[in-house]
Amino acid sequence: MLTRIDHIGIACRDLDKTVEFYRATYGFEVFHTEVNEEQGVREAMLKINDTGDGGASYLQLLEPTRPDSAVGKWMEKNGEGVHHIAFGTADVDGDSEDIRAKGIRVLYEQPRIGSMGSRITFLHPKDCGGVLTELVTAAEPGEHGEH
Ligand code: MC0
């Protein structure tokens, strides 16, 4: 069951500048940063609030590490902006199978590793009204030090 908006992924050209924009404009602070080489992104997670399911909602700022990455290709065409939304679930495996059974393309056979040790998969934007949609199961608290 999908129980929260886990994050909104925002593509940017310069992560440090964009982090500073969100800090100066809204007062949001960086909760976590990492590089995910498989996904080709350098990212910063800005925590917005804890959620009733024991997780949290974030803004995820994404700078491509290479032009042929998913975010690099998308930005080449669209410029900076909202790249995807992500729903949180305790069971990414079960929920992605249920959604696959509805005829929606789930991009990975098995979930892969996302931010902060989470397990993630994506639904094809062409099957989701033009919205690239991610499903996330957060790491157990303590497993990674954050949600
Ligand atoms: C591509 N399309 C999108 C889109 N990306 N539509 C809406 N939102 C997006 N973000 C559209 C294109 O405009 C195009 O439509 C069609 O999908 C095919 O795109 P393409 O440019 O030919 O690119 P493909 O087919 O090679 O790849 C698209 C696909 C890919 C969605 C399969 O980007 C992908 O595998 N994404 C999942 C992984 C990802 O995005 N990783 C980065 C975030 P037209 O009409 O022109 O044909 S990593 C992350 O977020 C992690 C770290 C985390 O949360 O923990």
UniProtKB/TrEMBL annotation:
Keywords: Isomerase, Metal-binding. One of its GO terms (biological process) is L-methylmalonyl-CoA metabolic process. It comes from the Bacteria. It is an enzyme of class 5 (isomerase). GO terms for molecular function: metal ion binding; methylmalonyl-CoA epimerase activity. The keyword Metal-binding applies. PROSITE patterns: VOC. The keyword Metal-binding applies. Residues 4-138 form the VOC domain. Pfam families: Glyoxalase_4. Its EC number is 5.1.99.1. PANTHER family: METHYLMALONYL-COA EPIMERASE, METHYLMALONYL-COA EPIMERASE, MITOCHONDRIAL. Belongs to the methylmalonyl-CoA epimerase family. This is Methylmalonyl-CoA epimerase. It comes from Streptomyces sp. Y1.
